[in-house]
Automatic annotation (TrEMBL):
Catalytic activity field: (sulfur carrier)-H + L-cysteine = (sulfur carrier)-SH + L-alanine
Organism, as annotated: Billgrantia antri
Pfam families given in the database record: Aminotran_5
Aminotransferase class V domain mapped to chain residues: 37-407
Signal peptide (residue range): none
Protein's recorded name: cysteine desulfurase
Entry keyword set: Pyridoxal phosphate, Transferase
Enzyme Commission numbers on file: 2.8.1.7
Transmembrane segments: none
Length: 419
């Protein structure tokens, strides 16, 4: 698609980006005297007024602990909290609300699987396959189990575009392979992985699959039953919600068989010093202690907001932004894009000859542009491509063509300063 066609597609009246932006008060601020251009969405997206107002509503009207009280405030808080469980179930198309466990985010969800399912089902010599594209949160928990239980962590390679090698993936399976742990979308490169196909291959070999969906749920419709995922995790703060709240989907029969990971209040049925302690039914067996109540309620509002805009519309809009940004920055001498998969989400990761990524990020911030720099918690991936850090621009539903053009111009100016 050429620039004119892209601009026409992105300016179609069906997608009201101005109306969307008006719902995000932070986008009105200036940074160093320039309008804020926020291109750090893969790290944390901004939150709309509907989500922000949820906190004021909760703390001013029905702030109370959940599941434990008989008074009105406790009932209202419990109802709002559990309503989010149903929202998440519908958002992921899970079969049963019992398959949704609230966590602090993707990292905690993966650690829950590793420490509950993993410790109960893995033994020395068993294998877990992870991809080179993984965030550290989907590498380190399995490395910890490897050091403690003697399991093997085997790596699915990628090609020069940052695309997983499915032939190599198939060849990695043995009779000892028990789990595949892979992201749906790479946070560092934006590569969209064929997780449905990968799940089918894993299941053919009798293995389970855990999908890190943190970077997928803001950009595309996710159907865990269509994927046939055994586990699927995501974080609220990537999908226009608050930090401190996320969810793990897991098939009900897996959760029923898994032992608790954390102990405390709420996750028990009865506690005694005389007979064994018994545990609550799923999902509450995995939700020890007082949760982030307001954050979970706000997560439900965020998912409703996304559904209201429409994930297909958001994905198409962001695809146009990525296409425009890729074309614009590719004109800059010495700039090299890392991650050129044909199927990408709205992430643009790059390095510049003769310029340090931190210098670029610091200087472009002076022009009001927020991007991310560093290893993006993907050190093995970047090392494979011979770099220690990249600059990363990442897009969201509220970003515009004008912002993309301003970013490209600012980037070119900054690169001229640091070389």
């Amino acid at each position: 698609m050429n620039h004119l066609a892209t601009e026409r597609a992105l300016s179609a009246p069906a997608y009201d980006v101005a109306g969307i932006r008006a719902q995000f008060p932070i986008l009105e601020r200036q940074v160093h005297g320039h309008p804020l251009i926020y291109f750090d969405n893969a790290a944390t997206s901004q939150t709309p007024l509907a989500v922000i107002d949820t906190f004021r509503d909760y703390f001013s009207r029905y702030n109370a602990n959940i599941h434990r009280g008989l008074h009105t405030l406790a009932d209202e808080a419990t109802a709002a909290y559990e309503a989010t469980r149903e929202t998440v179930r519908g958002f992921l198309n899970a079969a049963d609300r019992r398959e949704i466990v609230f966590t602090r985010g993707t990292t905690e969800a993966i650690n829950l699987v590793a420490n509950s399912w993993g410790r109960a089902n893995l033994m020395a010599g068993d294998e877990v396959l992870v991809s080179l594209l993984e965030h550290h949160s989907n590498i380190v928990p399995w490395q910890l189990l490897a050091s403690q239980l003697g399991i093997r962590v085997k790596v699915i390679p990628v090609d020069a575009r940052g695309v997983l090698d499915l032939d190599a993936y198939r060849a990695l399976f043995t009779e000892r392979t028990k789990l595949v742990a892979v992201n749906h979308v790479s946070n560092a490169f934006g590569t969209v992985n064929p997780v449905g196909e990968m799940a089918a291959i894993a299941h053919q070999h009798g293995a389970l699959i855990l999908v890190d969906g943190a970077q997928a749920v803001p950009h595309q419709t996710v159907d865990v039953r269509e994927i046939d995922a055994d586990f699927y995790a995501f974080s609220g703060h990537k999908v226009y919600g608050p930090t401190g709240a996320g969810a793990l989907y897991a098939r009900a029969e897996l959760l029923e068989a898994m032992p608790p990971w954390q102990g405390g209040g709420e996750m028990i049925s009865s506690v005694s010093f005389d007979v064994p302690t018994t545990f609550a039914d799923v999902p509450h067996k995995f939700e020890a202690g007082t949760p982030a109540i307001a954050e979970v309620i706000a997560l439900g509002v965020a998912l409703d907001w996304v559904s209201g805009v429409g994930l297909d519309a958001i994905g198409a809009w962001e695809a146009g932004l990525l296409e425009r940004a890729t074309a614009e920055v590719s004109r800059i001498d010495g700039l090299r894009i890392l991650g050129t998969a044909p199927n990408k989400a709205g992430v643009l990761s790059f390095v510049v000859d003769g310029a340090h990524s931190q210098d670029i990020a610091l200087l472009i911030d002076q022009l009001g542009v927020a991007i991310r720099t560093g290893n993006h918690c993907a050190q093995p991936l970047l090392a494979h491509f011979g770099v220690t850090a990249t600059c990363r621009a990442s897009f969201a539903a509220y970003n515009t063509l004008e912002e993309v053009d301003a970013f490209a111009a600012a980037l070119e100016r900054v690169i001229g300063m640091v070389r």
